[in-house]
Design a protein that fits this description.
The structure holds 2 protein chains of 2 kinds. Chain A is mainly α. Chain A is built from 2 helices and no strands. The radius of gyration of chain B is 24 Å and the shape is globular. Classes of the chains: A mainly alpha, B mainly alpha.
């Protein structure tokens, strides 16, 4: 397998999370949050996504450096067929 | 229509970033694509959890997200039978019992397995019908998405800014989605499709979980929801004794046999679109675990896709328990006046007028429930994320179809009939061509669906007939070594015929003879269309099962040594002792089934 899918997932959610948190902070108390029952859902859910994204990216990075430092990969041997 | 909420820059930004990532994954994977098998079967190198989430997402197209919420609003929690009775047991079965033959036989596709097990004609029947069917459903998915975008006026603003007419929204939606899907598949093949399906899985959860949270909070939690809805809508099983006591209009036998057994096993165990994901796994045990891993989130998906339909229904019917004054429902006065818009009436696209039924009441358009709720509850920012999740699900449905189509067309049609011996380089090129061809045909199918809705309905009906008996063929093929190619082929044909004849002889209550049935004569009337569909499937399956057995007994069987690895009794069992407990398919399967049983009991 070429690359670890956890890496792009991690990056994407980190970006989304950061964007939403910032947007939520700047628009706090805006009228539009009446729609989400008075909850600043951008800020809160953005925070959740940010944490998830950072975690994913961290795990993927760790796995990557383990491969680079020569430690054996955890994956079972793949029986590649033509 | 009062969808005055306009998208802001941040919503567009979220979408652009997502589609950037989607294409980016394709670009990164391009350098790993060197042979046709790397391109079409991901070189059998996908880890189990990735294949598992892709297995789930590939099916999570428009039909699922839009359709399940719509059914939730129409039929209530009984819709969860499609998951807890239908999908999950079938997924456990395919993982534990069938994957050893799909994966172990080294077949590159489901039709290829039929070739190894039976003969050319059975393979070709399956390959051809499958190829046409995938292109069609990919086209319908595209059409549904474009129509939704157009009806909800989501992207009208940028078109107005550019001075383009509104009718372009439809065409641009189709072209842009086709180009994006084409882009990432041509670049990274099946691996790219699978990776993007995983990405999309997380996106769907990220986009819809807060929606369900807000909706539930609004309606006063689960107890508030129960109060506002008729009790048949919050119980999955208790009305199943008679078709008149439950919103589905079916009774338990046809539900269990038709949906739970024939239709679900037929789809999850034989449809190459989903099975392909498991066949791309990096080892036999990973392939077997793929559907089992997928089953866990699948079990919870009703809360994500069916619940919004129920919530919308509860909030649209204020009459049920108005003024109960729950303390848990905040700002009930302010909320009350916006509720009507959660399920909007159907609007004729051409005339712009509300569609009405015979009594003059507006016909409700359940298909817009999810997007309506997104627009209703989400402020800018989250709205962008929610809409992106919705678009992503449409596209991955399309991508799933295209990746299955190009494999079947390249290996099972082109290599089988047009050029048998050629270099892999040649097939690598053909695979790319088939991808472009598949997307082009999908676009064609989308416009065809827009222009000839009726013909599309007929085609879908025909394919329902083709699919109904399929599981009988696989069941016999894998577990009874005496089954012969002639038996399988003619069993399938007679099953398809039985489905057509049964549908032609029966009709659901309140329908006129025609596409809904009764086009031969009316022998029986069913209480609902769903009951009719389930019985059609049961008849088709039984006919195929019996005819296959009879013809197999009358024809010459293949010698045992040709069937090694293809039939249960002639295949060595996988040993599980070397695996950790959480990697053992049988144990995982039992756990999954127990959890599903618990869910069924909770929502009995």
């Amino acid at each position: 397998m070429g690359f670890d899918i956890r890496l792009p997932i991690g990056y994407l959610f980190t970006i989304f999370g950061a964007l939403l948190v910032l947007f939520g902070l700047f628009t706090a108390n805006a009228d539009m949050y009446q729609r989400s029952l008075g909850i600043n859902i951008d800020l809160w859910w953005g925070g959740v996504l940010l944490i998830f994204g950072l975690l994913m990216a961290f795990v993927a990075r760790k796995a990557q450096s383990r491969i680079q430092t020569g430690q054996p990969e955890r994956r079972p041997p793949s029986n590649k067929s033509t | 229509m009062n969808h005055s909420q306009e998208l802001q820059w941040i919503d567009y930004l979220v979408m652009i970033i997502y589609f950037g990532f989607v294409l980016g994954i394709g670009f990164v994977l391009k350098r790993f694509m060197r042979t046709s098998s790397e391109f079409l079967t991901a070189g059998r190198s996908i880890p189990a959890w990735v294949a598992g989430l892709a297995f789930l997402s590939a099916n999570l197209g428009a039909q699922e997200v839009i359709g399940m919420a719509a059914s939730g609003a129409k039929y209530g929690i009984a819709t969860s039978h499609f998951y807890w009775l239908g999908a999950i047991p079938a997924m456990v079965f395919v993982g534990i019992f069938m994957m050893p033959f799909y994966y172990g036989s080294k077949a590159h596709s489901v039709p290829d397995y039929l070739l190894l097990r039976f003969d050319k004609k059975t393979r070709s029947l399956n390959a051809m019908t499958f190829a046409v069917m995938t292109v069609m459903s990919s086209g319908i998915s595209m059409y549904a998405m474009a129509l939704l975008i157009q009806t909800l006026h989501i992207f009208d603003a940028p078109f107005q800014m550019l001075g383009l007419p509104n009718s372009w929204v439809f065409h641009v939606s189709i072209i842009v989605s086709a180009v994006i899907v084409l882009g990432y598949i041509v670049l990274g093949g099946l691996t790219s499709a699978i990776y993007n399906e995983v990405l999309q899985f997380f996106l769907i959860v990220a986009g819809f979980a807060p929606l369900v949270f807000l909706g539930l909070r609004n309606v006063g939690g689960w107890s508030g929801l129960k109060e506002k809805l008729p009790s048949s809508f919050v119980h999955a099983w208790s009305g199943m004794g008679s078709p008149h006591n439950n919103p589905l209009g079916v009774e338990w036998f046809s539900l269990v046999m038709g949906l739970g057994f024939v239709l679900s096993f037929g789809y999850w165990c034989t449809d190459f679109l989903v099975v392909q994901r498991a066949m791309a796994a990096d080892s036999m045990s990973a392939a077997r675990r793929t559907p089992l891993i997928a089953a866990v989130p699948k079990m919870l998906f009703p809360f994500l896709v069916i619940l919004p339909g129920l919530i919308a229904l509860a909030l649209t019917q204020p009459a049920h328990s108005a003024g109960s004054g729950e303390s848990s429902a905040p700002k009930s006065a302010e909320v009350a006046n916006v509720h009507e818009s959660l399920i909007s009436p159907q609007v004729n696209v051409e005339t712009g007028q509300v569609v009405k039924d015979k009594e003059g009441n507006p016909v409700l358009d359940y298909n817009t429930v999810i997007p309506q709720m997104l627009l209703h509850y989400f402020p800018s920012g989250m709205l962008g994320l929610g809409l992106t999740a919705l678009l992503a699900s449409f596209m991955s449905g399309m991508a799933g179809n295209v990746t299955a189509f190009n494999t079947v067309c390249t290996y099972d049609i082109y290599r089988a009939y047009i050029r048998k011996e050629a270099s892999d380089e040649h097939y690598f090129g053909v695979a790319h061509f088939m991808t472009v061809f598949g997307v082009a045909l999908s676009v064609g199918a989308a416009y065809f669906a827009a222009a000839f809705n009726n013909i599309m309905d007929i085609l879908q009906l025909v394919f329902a007939f083709v699919n109904a008996p399929l599981f009988a063929t696989f069941l016999l093929g894998m577990f009874w070594k005496r089954t012969t190619g002639h038996g399988a082929f003619f069993g399938l044909l007679s099953g398809i015929t039985a489905a057509a004849v049964h549908q032609g002889l029966t009709i659901p209550e309140g329908s006129v003879p025609g596409i809904k049935g009764g086009w031969i004569a009316i022998v029986n009337t069913y209480s609902s269309e769903m009951a009719q569909n389930f019985w059609t499937a049961i008849f088709a399956w039984t006919t195929c099962f019996l005819v296959t057995i009879v013809i197999s007994l009358a024809t010459k069987p293949r010698p045992d040594n040709e069937l090694k690895g293809l039939v249960y009794s002639l295949t060595e069992r996988e040993r599980e002792e070397s695996l950790a407990w959480y990697q053992r398919p049988v144990l995982l399967g039992v756990v999954v089934l127990c959890l599903t049983l618990v869910l069924n009991i909770i929502f009995f």
